[in-house]
Amino acid sequence: MIRTSMRLISLILISFFVMIGLKDYPVFAAEAESYTLYSGQSVSVTLASSSTTSFTVKGDSFDYAKYTEDGKLSASGQYTRTYTVTLYSGQKAVLTNTSSSEVTITAKTRPVNFVTSSTPAMQKRNVAPGSSVLVHNSSSVAESVTFDGLNDYAKYDEDGVLTSFARNDRGGAASVPANGGTVITNRDQQTVQLIGASEIFTFTDSTPASFRETLKTGETLEAENITSKSFYVYYESEGTLSYEYVVYKADGTVDSSSTSAKSPSDLIGTGKRLVVTNRGNAPLVVIGAFDAFRVTNENNTAYIEQKIQ
Fold first, then answer.
1. Fewest beta carbons less than 10 Å away: which of 69, 197, 224, 277?
2. Which helix (H) or strand (E) holds 10?
3. What CA–CA distance (Å, rounded) separates 57 from 62?
4. Model pTM score
5. Can you tell me the distance from the alpha carbon of 230 to that of 265, in angstroms, rounded to the nearest whole number?
6. From CA 302, how far away is CA 177, in angstroms rounded?
């Protein structure tokens, strides 16, 4: 399947660039009790000894990400004013000054190691309405990014295989599978910022998470499930929701049908083909996972009235 293969290639390439591209490039390194972080700068903080140490970060605004010894994300966020970080053996914290004034970092009990970094704590991408981004997670556990806007999303495993799909998500934390990816399509009316920890997430432009086809009254659409699992097709209308449909099995025989369906969704199994015609009094929007269905327009109505013995 071409689309799945391309998705897998993208995930492999992204993993490669994450491994070779997201490293600390030391400009300054020192063991100290305090450090001044200037506007736009980033610094990596590690223990100077094996003992647990806390440090305080003060400034107008700064981004923060903390990683365990094996590279898993322990915590992350965007903060203002004052925040206290506790580092345990093997952990690393990365901080970026996102304000126009200085940010100070002060160790509470003992010195820590400061290493300046060209990689910010959090990477950010402005996603325009209708645009889509593939978020790849290089961690061995599922992690989350932030997207505070209306969206459709699709999740993929480490082999690039589609595993789940959701529409009309209201935004917030979006989970990304371990070593896999999530495609997020911005359906908001304004540009929304996508935010995630830089050392485990990579953002790239993508095909949509969903297809959204609008059918006028009497128009017909065909959607064939080309994956190895069942996925839903959803229907939305600002008028009366009414459609007729036929679901065909892989061998061409009829699996199910209706001349007056009003359900907001239909589950389409592997290899099955949905043919749907809008019989409502307003346009019908048909929605599904972009990589799950082969979608074509049809000239014939979905249902031929006949008595099946």
1. 69
2. helix 2-21
3. 9
4. 0.85
5. 13
6. 37
List, in sequence order, the alpha helices (H) in 199-255: none
Q: Which amino acid is at 280?
A: G
- Given the structure tokens 């959204």, which residue do they identify? 212
Which CATH superfamily includes the segment(s) 24-117?
Jelly Rolls (2.60.120.10)
User: DSSP secondary-structure letter at 224?
Assistant: E
* Residue carrying the six token digits 């970094």: 117
The CATH code of the domain at 210-298 is 2.60.120.10
Q: How many residues does the chain have?
A: 309
Which amino acid is it at 190? Answer: Q
pLDDT by residue for the chain (309 residues), tens only, comes to 445 554 554 554 444 444 434 444 444 567 889 999 999 999 999 998 888 999 999 999 999 999 999 999 999 999 998 999 999 999 999 999 999 999 999 998 889 999 999 999 999 999 999 999 999 999 999 999 999 999 999 999 999 999 999 999 999 999 999 999 999 999 999 999 999 999 999 999 999 999 999 999 999 999 999 999 999 999 999 999 999 999 999 999 999 999 999 999 999 999 999 999 999 999 999 999 999 999 998 655 655 554 333
Structure tokens, 178 = 């371990």
Domain edges within the chain: 2-18+122-205, 24-117, 210-298
Q: Do 24-117 and 210-298 come out as alike in CATH topology?
A: yes
Tokens encoding 6: 């391309």
Separation of alpha carbons 114 and 159, rounded Å: 37
The CATH code for residues 2-18+122-205 is 2.60.120
